[in-house]
Amino acid sequence: MIFATFLPFIITLVWIKSKNLDYDISDKDKRIVPLLLGALSNIIGVIILFSLGAPFVIVVLMFCYFSNSLLAALISFSWKISIHSMGVAGPTAAMIYIFGYPGLLFIIPLLMIMWSRIHLQKHTPAQVIVGAVTSFIFTILQFKILIP
Questions:
Q1: How far is C-alpha 12 from the geometric centre of its chain's CA atoms?
Q2: Cβ(16)–Cβ(23) under 8 Å?
Q3: Alpha carbon 136 to chain centroid, angstroms
Q4: How confident is the model at residue 120 (pLDDT cuts 50, 70, 90)?
């Protein structure tokens, strides 16, 4: 929780305040630094979890947070992808991979997030769909490679 949620949240909040930005960081170019700092926090979490002997599936999930954050940062150089959709689609993919059919329940909050980002006019449907699909596929691939 510390390295996947609290530190990235605090880092982003400090970044927003220091740059006097809106909470959604609407300018795609301003998202890159907090995403990279969040990825740094995630990789530190991977190292700590691995060092402490955490269950490997948890280490892999944290690694997915790291790599998906890097992917979002790279995409943000040229396009405003929905980080909210990415942030929910990755864990949704992990739950489906780990638990099978019961994991499909996580699609409900994913669809709600996707709808809300469009309804609030923070993203286009394409930005939301591509964010979700990209993170979902990327997470599934990582799980298949790291936990065959």
A1: 13
A2: yes
A3: 10
A4: very high
pTM, two decimals, is 0.90
User: How many whole angstroms separate alpha carbon 130 and alpha carbon 148?
Assistant: 26
The tokens for 145 are 């490679």
Token pair recorded at residue 125: 């449907």
Model confidence at 108, in pLDDT bands (50, 70, 90)? Answer: very high
Q: How far is CA 147 from CA 96, 100, 121, in A?
A: 14, 14, 38
Q: Is 90:138 a contact under the CB 8 Å cutoff? A: yes
pLDDT digits (tens, 9 = 90+) for 51-88: 999 999 999 999 999 999 999 999 999 999 999 999 99
- Where does 52-106 have alpha helices with state H? 56-76, 83-99
Q: How many CB atoms lie within 10 A of CB 113?
A: 21
In angstroms, how far is CA 22 from the centroid of its own chain? 19
* Of residues 1, 2, 84, the one with CA closest to residue 35: 84
Map tokens 């996947």 to a residue. Answer: 4
Helix or strand holding residue 14 (H, E): helix 7-19
